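Slide 14.
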Amino acid sequence: MEGRHGKKDETNVRRVSFGPFLKKTTNNNKIYIYIRVVSLTNEAARLNGFRDGTEMLTQPYESDNFVREMTETLEELTPLYQQLHAYVRYRLRKV
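Slide 15: predicted structure.
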């Protein structure tokens, strides 16, 4: 994909190439629409001071206490996981 200044824009290529569903689509127009959306999102992000579209779109979810929040979430989910694991073991023994 060509960037604004005629150089290959590696950021856009990397963002677009991760979608394996693009190879399976029967309508190639979807590919070009997707590439255009990614390109416009990245351009808007750069104009707003972000590195790329991904950074801009995930920024609202970032926090200063991310590690603490994830630790708390893991602690909350651990009992559920243990119960689920015990239930699966119980059901598998009956098979």
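Speaker note: The two ends are 54 Å apart (CA to CA).
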